[in-house]
Amino acid sequence: SVVAHLASLLRREKVRTTAVRALGQLVAGDPHAPFRNAALLAILGMHTVKDVELQLVVGDALATLAMSPPRQASSAPPPALPRIKPPEAPAVTGTGADATLAERTADAATACELAAGDTLLRYVLGRVLLQHVVAWAPLERQAGAAWLLALLRQAAKSGGGELAVRTAAGRIQAALVGLLADSNEATQELASKGLSALFDCCDEASRATILQELVAGLQSSRAANASASGGEMATYKELSEIATSVGQPALVYKLMECAASSAVWNTRKGVAFALAEQSRDALEPHLPSLLPTLFRYTFDPNPRVANAMRQLWAALVPDPKPALTKHLQPVLEHLCASLGDRLWRGRESACLALAELLPGRTLAELSPTLARLLTALLRVLDDVKETVRKAAEPAWRAVSSACVRLSDGGRASASDAEAVLEIALPILLDGVLLPSEEVRAVCTKQLLKLVQGSGKHVGPHTPRLVPFLIESLSSNESSALTYMQQHAPGLGVSAGTFEAARVAAARASPAHAALEQCLAIMDDAQVGATVPRLSEILVRGTGLPARCGAARVVLQLARDRQSALTPHAGKLLSVATRAILEERSAAARRAYASAAAQLARLAKPEPLGDLLRSLTQRYVLTAVTTNEQEERLTLASLVRELGRGAPDAMGGLRADWLPLAFIGRHEPRWEAERQEAGKQHEAGALASVWEEAYDEGGGNAGAAASHLQELLALLRTMVDGQSWALRRAAAAALIDLANLSSGALKKRPDAASQFELLAASLRESSRRWDDKEALLPKLNACFPPPPTPHAAPPPTESADM
User: Fold this and answer.
1) First-to-last CA distance in the chain?
2) Taking the model in full, what pTM does it have?
3) pLDDT tens digits for 476-490?
4) Of 365, 445, 446, nearest to 403 (Cα)?
5) Which of 191, 371, 400, 584 fits a disulfide with 179 by CB distance 3.0 to 4.6 angstroms?
6) Which strand (E) or helix (H) includes residue 133?
């Protein structure tokens, strides 16, 4: 027979498509013919074939025969239909598909009941729903999905089967929703397109019912898949959320139809099912609301979701660039909000989308959301999930590049540059205070780029930038250098040498270059606003590079911006002096001393005189401790640097420092210096510094004579003090002073008695001092002692440490 011959042709791959169509047309001509069952079983037996394109042809054949009424009316009952065999346990369950086996068997029997004049649609729908789409074989479920899609499309086009479809709409949707969770991508997409076709078949009442059931089904994760690998409905849940977010839940059906990435839709038959124009037309009015969410989902971390959304994006937005430009603000608003999404997928996809969207944008496009973008990206750079942090890096680079480009001093307009800096710099400066080390690093790097690239436009922000850049000299220093500094003696390198290397490295850093640029563009008001933070860093700065950097900034301002710094010179000089006395690093003390020397040129005589007198007092009254020598060397170095940096100011205040320098020239060598072979008769380090200060400051016999009373008063203080070293220096200075001008000074009426009293005090056996036995003969030669009948035994007195 013809049916048997066509059925045999179904086994031949080249002609089976034509054979399927022929069988469908044959049964459509007489749906109650005796050969009907044989043809039906032959067509339905194609469910084992993997070819999706062929299954769509099978579905067309089933639709053709199922919706064709008998050509000739007959009162005779039609022949019995092949039995429907529901599986004992359906492989797919979905919304409303939890019927028992008995209920499903009863439904199958009902679907097989056929009256004269009836079409085969109820039977075909029943068989597909009860037997094929719930089968455990993946290929059979795929075939059932393709058949349902074809049946629903044909029903929507012809209108002949709409009533039967509406009647079974709930069951059809339940089956299709269950197939959305199938492990096979083609099966999923067939089901999603079937849902859209079902929506087109229904009237308004039916649509409301199935829409409510669909949204509820997608939001709950009850759909299960029979395959061992498990199913996934993420794509369709996201589509439902997109439709709901624009206030049009019904759009989920059209979105499902458009979201298809399987290769099956590129085949000749698949193209006909790929995208109905009416679906695109239905979505077009809602595109402005759909586009932001849809664009983000094209970067979803889930590959299935991303592929489906990209396909949907390509279908709805054929020209993406102008569409994104037109709707840029809603897109940026949505991405900003998504950066704070409670779901990590939302945060990650927003980061990836921003990296794609931001390059090349203008300030007018970015300014409404730039501040929120920077703040939100700093948060996700420290996200708890590693993939989100990695996705945030290209997004941060994109927004950072935009800021640098829009604030470029050579290309951007002044208004644009100032607007960008006004937004970005405060956020970045706050970002460097965040606890995350990675966030602090990216903020610092971006700040340096903005400062170096924006030129003079950064001027208004320098009061905050300069202290930050100074502190960044330490924060950007390698921790390895700090470790090596602590172990310098073990490495055979002196601490001073290592400190100098650290300071040199900091001066070669990008932060120091940016600092120099800021100093060059600051005006007087900005310099004044920076002084309080400079003072704080000088005293409490963390890290050697930062403290030395602050001292260098003060030095440069005092040298190059005298008018701006003069009102603050006295305060800064006092702060620098305090910092010198509290600083343990020799490199930092030298930097402070150089800064203080420049400040002395700007300070008024009164505060400078007060400073010198306090230094003298501190030098004389320093406690006898192991730090005595180091502190006195620091004070001596400071006086020397003040004389070098401000010779005129120091020349007018000789009475406040020259007596100390005169006596300091006679300081004895330290205990450690006495061990050096061949140098026992040379001046020690402390005496050498005082010698330089005395000579460079104009010290000579005339100057000593001019300040003789101040000298004698200071000698009396030292002789009566606790330090043996200072007594020794006072004795040597007294001998030197007595020999100046051929001994004329000790014969002056206003000084002779004081000379004698000082000599007598030094000779007292109760006063001990270094090298007393060696210097006492010289002292007696200058000031012969009066004869005494006896001498009292000397009391016990502790020596200097």
Assistant:
1) 126
2) 0.65
3) 777 777 667 666 666
4) 446
5) 191
6) none
